[in-house]
Design brief:
- The complex is a heterotrimer of chains A (306), B (339) and C (300).
- Chain A is mostly helical and 306 residues long.
- Chain A contains 12 helices and no strands.
- Chain B starts with 6 loop residues before the first strand and ends with a helix.
- In chain B, helix 3 packs parallel to helix 6, helix 4 packs across helix 6 and helix 6 runs parallel beside helix 7.
- Chain B has an 8-stranded mixed β-sheet with strand order 6-7-8-3-9-10-12-11, sandwiched between helices. A 4-stranded antiparallel β-sheet of chain B has the order 2-1-4-5.
- Chain B is α/β, with parallel strands linked by helices and 339 residues long.
- In chain B, a hairpin with a 2-residue loop joins strand 4 and strand 5.
- Chain B is globular, with a radius of gyration of 22 Å.
- Chain C is mostly helical and 300 residues long.
- In chain C, helix 5 packs antiparallel against helix 8, helix 11 packs parallel to helix 12 and helix 11 runs antiparallel to helix 13.
- In chain C, 44% of the residues are buried.
- Helix content of chain C is 72%, strand content 0%.
- The chains are: A mainly alpha (306), B alpha/beta (339), C mainly alpha (300).
- At the A-C interface, helix 1, helix 6, helix 7, helix 10 and helix 11 of A face helix 5, helix 6, helix 11, helix 12 and helix 13 of C.
């Protein structure tokens, strides 16, 4: 087990390096000369050159990349063009908020999704099953930003029971977490259902019945444990979609998280902030995937003795 | 009748049909047999003849759409299992009537330790506490011949070989000392060398516990080794029902004869293996008359018109064939007269 | 799919490879037709293609024309979906928007699948270090959560529907690559590939004439489902102001606009969202139907 964790950790390193590489080089796609952009309108040639020297923009790209990489490892994610603050500081302020949102959302995804999937699987092709799956289909088809807006309209405006925006109380969490978590819940529901149906057909479930075990024991003890194994990986991947979705949800509900930071930075062309934000989010996702893989492995020791 | 030979399971006119979009499949269409204490009854037939469905019907394990027990009775200790409530049926499963299945590789839950899979039945049916049940489970593993049972009990099925897994299945089935054990092709998926061991084990435990065993198989060799009586099934019906030696020495039904003929004979020089011409009728579309008629070397028009009943002959053998009835002699006389 | 091959007779090989194609298609079509939901999905998709193509003929008003006196009108007989804050007819804008969404969706998926398939085929076929290298690259791309990769690309290239297409296409590449690689590995193991190679076929022929046609089904299923996601992502990026810019009648942009009027004129936001939802639903239903039709377990 420890060997596996170690090996998996080693595997993440090239991925992390790859991510920094991609982030860095995407930023190079920006049309125009960065020194000129930084210097501003009507700056003189000397100013532009001075800036270029100062920031080392005249060095070969690969060298600039390694410089960037080293900085990142030391915690320097660049400086904001708008307020000249270190990007990392801004990230550290915003990150906990996004993590809270992500946490509540993933709970909704897991709980709602698994419950719906199990309910459907236990009575396949019944009315319950068809309706739940229909709702799940809607869940993956509705745009989250629209869904969020619609919910905001109904609950905050029409019914006035939930706050419109902000992040102060638990009430503020409900709509954004639901918006963010619903799509994932739909996917998990579908996956859980198909996995359960697959498992219930297996011989060992027939054996469990032949032993006279009660139905709920068969479902929760015998079937579910096997069925949830593939669902774990799906949940892990959904976390990624969730992190990406914070970009939209935070904008709609005016939450000061990482996602909104990135979007605002793009609008204001504050590229270091975009770079830093995307990098931070990706690193978090890589770490989460690592945990999910280890978690999965813990429950599926059969892979070891393949 | 001595207590040893009292009947514990009586199946009367059992019918299990499947209602699908392709029509109604009459997989089991009128089965009668009796199982006595300490006796081993073999049910033989080719795949699709309904033998597995029969055993699943006894325990009411037929998937309920699309299957349904469409008629008949299964009498166990005076109670008709067909009409019992699901709750009462559960108390019987794994407790008074147990079943072991063909595929030990897939019939055990891969994520639960084998000891637990035995212990849960003990806790449920015998009301044992956790500790008690675990100890008994380990004992059962020892009883079925698994070495280092304390260690093995904590392992998961993938850590055991095929033969060991089947032993675990047997341990699971016998943990609550059932009256009846239904063994559905218990050795088909195992190596030949292990097969003999498992059959020995079942025989031993049967003697110890005194239970009745229904041995379902397509392998006549297994039948000759283990069964006291044999019921031969074809297309959902029993077509011959006799003590084992009589089946082998004097098979009456043409199908049984065909089965025995198709076995390769060591002492003869055979160029080809004998087969029975034709194929089994579809359970969706069964003929009106004798279901074997179209393949039977002795077929007559009578056979296609009406289905013969399962009738007991003078020597105690039951056979479902017009040849052993009075109508037959009348018919052949008539024919002879016409010619 | 496994094909019986008698390696001694080359004629047998070519025949047995060509035969399954026709009956497989008929087979597949009949299963698809039976799946009513899939037909519904197909109808929806065709409907949107239709209204997109014929938007100029169907739209009652000019989607760009600003008539300030008519602003913020609720749905009525004159304007079935009402007007927005600049007096533009929402229905007309939705019709024209179909062109944009479908266009971006198909273009992005075409772009993504093209590169993804090539990467997947090469990785699966050549294996070893080529495989490791390509799949590592794909892993890196997949390490970016959700649309963040697309966001990063947009932030560099600037807003606009073209850039959105590239960005969304880029993040489809690794998904196609993974699926294609997996299928390629499966097909590669079949004996008939060895047989053909022993007859002297070169790598290019093998990959494109023999492997590719046999792995089309998962590609098509994935493609359909990716179309759904691509349209959602593109609309999302436009919603954030990074895609089609106003006054473009792109549905995401319209939604963003409608957000400001959510309390007074909610229909400005409701209809574009509905339009996106139904189209994506259509692709999802159709994709599910396709997947079931291709699933060998469904065939009796």
């Amino acid at each position: 087990m420890m060997m596996f964790i170690f090996r998996r950790l080693i595997q993440t390193i090239p991925v992390v390096i790859g991510v920094t590489f991609v982030v860095f080089f995407i930023m190079q796609l920006v049309p125009g000369d960065p020194a000129v952009l930084l210097a501003g309108e009507g700056a003189s040639k000397e100013t532009v050159n001075a800036i270029r020297e100062q920031l080392g923009l005249n060095r070969p790209l690969l060298v600039q990349y390694f410089d960037y990489l080293l900085n990142v490892f030391q915690g320097d994610f660049g400086t904001s063009l708008k307020n000249s603050q270190p990007v990392l500081d801004e990230i550290m302020v915003r990150l906990p908020i996004t993590m809270e949102l992500a946490f509540f959302s993933i709970i909704i995804t897991i709980v709602l999704g698994m419950a719906a999937g199990i309910i459907s699987a236990v009575k396949p092709y019944s009315l319950t099953d068809t309706s739940v799956m229909l709702v799940a289909l809607l869940g993956i088809s509705l745009p989250s930003f629209w869904f969020g807006l619609m919910m905001m309209y109904f609950f905050s405006v029409k019914l006035q029971i939930l706050p419109v925006a902000g992040w102060d109380s638990i009430l503020h969490v409900i709509l954004p977490a639901l918006t963010l978590g619903a799509g994932g819940a739909a996917i998990v529901a579908r996956m859980t259902r198909s996995s359960m149906l697959e498992v219930i057909r297996q011989d060992y479930i027939r054996t469990a019945r032949a032993k006279g075990l009660r139905e709920h024991v068969i479902i929760y003890k015998h079937a579910l444990r096997n069925a949830l194994i593939p669902v774990i990986t799906v949940v892990g991947l959904q976390f990624g979609a969730l992190l990406g979705g914070t970009v939209l949800v935070e904008s709609i509900f005016a939450i000061n998280g990482l996602g909104r930071m990135i979007v605002d930075a793009i609008r204001m062309r504050d590229l270091p902030v975009v770079q830093g934000g995307v990098l931070a989010a990706s690193l978090i996702f890589v770490i989460v995937n690592l945990f999910v893989d280890v978690f999965y492995r813990f429950f599926n020791k059969r892979i070891e003795l393949n | 009748m001595s207590e040893k030979n009292s009947p514990i399971l009586e199946v009367k006119g059992l019918k299990t049909h499947f209602f699908t979009k392709h029509g109604v499949s009459k997989a089991v269409d009128g089965i009668d047999f009796t199982l006595r204490k300490g006796e081993t009854l073999g049910i033989v037939g080719e795949s699709g003849c309904g033998k597995s469905i029969t055993s699943l019907s006894i325990l009411r394990l037929i998937p309920s759409p699309p299957g349904k027990i469409a008629g008949g009775q299964v009498l166990y200790k005076g109670k008709d299992l067909v009409t019992l409530s699901e709750d009462e049926m559960r108390k019987i499963r794994g407790n008074e009537i147990s079943m072991i299945f063909q595929e030990p590789m897939t019939s055990l839950n891969p994520v639960i330790p084998v000891g637990e899979q035995i212990a849960e039945a003990l806790r449920l049916h015998q009301g044992m506490r956790k500790k008690e049940a675990w100890i008994k489970a380990v004992e059962m593993l020892r009883l079925v011949g698994i070495p280092s049972p304390e260690k093995r009990a904590k392992q998961e099925p993938f850590q055991l070989s095929g033969g060991m897994r089947q032993r675990v299945m047997i341990a699971m089935a016998l943990a609550c000392t059932p009256e009846v054990l239904i063994a559905d092709e218990p050795t088909t998926a195992l190596d030949v060398t292990i097969q003999a061991q498992i059959l020995e084990l079942i025989k031993d435990l049967q003697k110890k516990i005194g239970m009745g065993v229904i041995m379902i198989t397509h392998d006549l060799g297994v039948v000759s080794e283990t069964c006291d009586k044999v019921a031969v099934m074809y297309a959902g019906n029993i077509i011959e029902h006799a003590p084992t030696e009589k089946i082998f020495t004097n098979p009456k039904h043409p199908y049984t004869q065909g089965l025995l003929n198709s076995l390769p004979k060591i002492h003869e020089d055979q160029e080809e293996l004998q087969t029975i011409e034709g194929s089994v009728p579809s359970p969706y579309n069964l003929p009106a008359g004798c279901r074997f008629a179209s393949r039977c070397p002795h077929q007559k028009p009578l056979c296609h018109l009406q289905k013969p009943d399962l009738i007991e002959q003078n020597d105690g053998v039951k056979v479902r064939c017009w040849m052993y009835t009075d109508e037959w002699t009348k018919h052949t006389e008539k024919e002879g007269a016409v010619k | 799919m496994p094909v019986e091959v008698n390696t001694e007779k080359s004629i047998v090989i070519t025949q047995t490879i060509n035969l399954p194609k026709r009956s497989k298609f008929k087979d597949f079509l009949s299963i698809l037709m039976v799946n009513k939901a899939a037909m519904v999905g197909a109808m929806i998709i065709l409907f949107y293609i239709f209204i997109g193509l014929f938007a100029p003929l169907l739209a009652p008003y000019n989607p760009y024309e600003i008539i300030l006196e008519d602003k913020l009108l609720p749905p009525s007989i004159d304007h079935w979906m009402g007007t927005d804050d600049k007096g533009r007819d929402i229905l007309s804008r939705i019709l024209y928007g179909s062109r944009l969404s479908m266009g971006v969706g198909f273009a992005a998926v075409a772009f993504g699948s093209f590169f993804g398939i090539i990467f997947g085929l090469v990785a699966g076929y050549y294996g070893k270090w080529v495989d490791s290298l390509i799949m590592r690259m794909m892993d890196v791309m997949l390490a970016f959560p959700g649309i963040l990769l697309a966001l990063a690309i947009i932030s560099a290239l600037g807003p606009g529907l073209m850039n959105v297409t590239i960005a969304v296409g880029a993040f489809s590449v690794p998904l196609f690559a993974r699926i294609v690689r997996g299928s390629t590995l499966e097909v590669k193991r079949l004996e008939y590939i060895d047989a053909i190679r022993s007859l002297g076929a070169n790598d290019f022929t093998i990959i494109f004439k023999h492997i590719l046609p046999n792995i089309l089904s998962p590609i098509i299923v994935q493609g359909t489902l990716r179309l759904a996601t691509a349209i959602l992502s593109a609309a999302g990026l436009s919603f954030l102001g990074l895609g089609a810019q106003p006054p473009s009648p792109e549905w995401g942009t319209m939604l963003s606009n409608g957000r400001d009027f959510l309390f007074s004129a909610p229909y400005i936001a409701i209809f574009p969202g509905l339009a996106i939802s139904i189209l994506v639903l259509g692709f999802n239903i159709f994709g599910d139907g396709l997947r079931d039709a291709f699933d060998p377990r469904m065939k009796k």
